[in-house]
Amino acid sequence: MLGGLAASAVSAPSFPALAKLFTVGRRAAESFTLTNGLQVVVLPARRAPIVTQMMVYKVGSADESFGRTGVAHFLEHMMLKGTERVASGEFSRIVSRNGGRDNAYTTFDSTGYYQIVAPDRLDLVMRMEADRMTGLRITERELISERQVVLEERRSRIDNVPAALLDEAAREQLFGRHKPYAMPVIGYVDDIKKLNITELTTFYRRFYTPGNAVLIVAGDTTPEIVRKLAEKHYGPIPNRKVEARRRPAQGGTDLPQRVSRADARVVEPRWSCDWLAPSYRVGETKYAYALQVLARLFGGSETSRLWRALVTDSKIALSASAGYSPASLGLSSFGVGVHPTPQRTVREIETAVNLEMKKLIDGGVTANEVERAQNQLLAAAIYAQDSLASGPRLYGAVLSTGGTMADIDAWPERIAAVTPAEVAAAAQSVWRDSGAVISLLTPAEGSR
Question: Known catalytic residue: 90?
């Protein structure tokens, strides 16, 4: 849960209603912007002699169009190839030879590249990252070979995973077919097969520019050192104007919907329901913080309402969970998932989940359970301050979707200020049939 990984914060308010809540000290953080528009965030931490550099671009798969999906993720792969200064494949090998490691990721709204190295190698990885911001060289030979790598990744992570195929179908219904968040991050197979150098290069030149990126450096360094190196390596890169990104303010039509998949590879059935939900940016944004607390108290742990009712008490489920993340440039989703015990029917599961939802909306929630959920979220924020992975990733996610440093700082205070009435109101707002997609994954008939 993204909110629960907040690693930089101010103390919670100190009035009586919140007296039992954990206090999250503000993480040391400094931000500045270079003249070319590149935002730089420094998160000093002296716990270990290592440093993480993460370059996050404000572009993801949701910036693609139907029929041309997979560009953002394919380009992420090609960024690991060569430039005029660094031969193909040498980027990762150089990082490895210097005792570090590197990787990258693509989401709906952002693409990130990071290296973890010793502090005295920060100059090296900054130089190489700056080089590939402008000097990427894409050849036909490398594109053809990397296409097979991407297709195999698609096969192993989605096509050979029944649950992933079902989730893909559910998103198409929830967000609307051919719409940004409905299309898979990795892309559709037919689109991946058609991608060419021109499309990749156009996408690269359109979005990969200093003013459309955030550089995050965490670990054993100082803001002064990072500023000097950033100005040296990234400062000379000219900026280009990038058009404002847009996301639909509505989800799929003709909801509610049901999607199902029967597959011989399935061992245990799974029932789930996803609702359209606001994010920090779109929809009923006033509920974003209350929904994080709701997800935690309703299905965020083995002490949650749903787990206790379905797993511990009635024993009709093997597990039960709920999840929600508000860091999205467009709409988000609130999900509930249940693994039924053998011999239990889907009707029983749906009835039990609906009953627990009704109890929460009709009877509200208690101050004690809200406080417990808030403390679980705040504790996660405290632990995250020791991480050189979740911290930079969090800052990248928030800052690449319209958030600010102040938003990150204020997260614990805003979580601590959520009231039981706001949690119930958020549930009533989101748990609507007109915004729901129910999914059912089962073994194929006769497969067991």
Answer: no
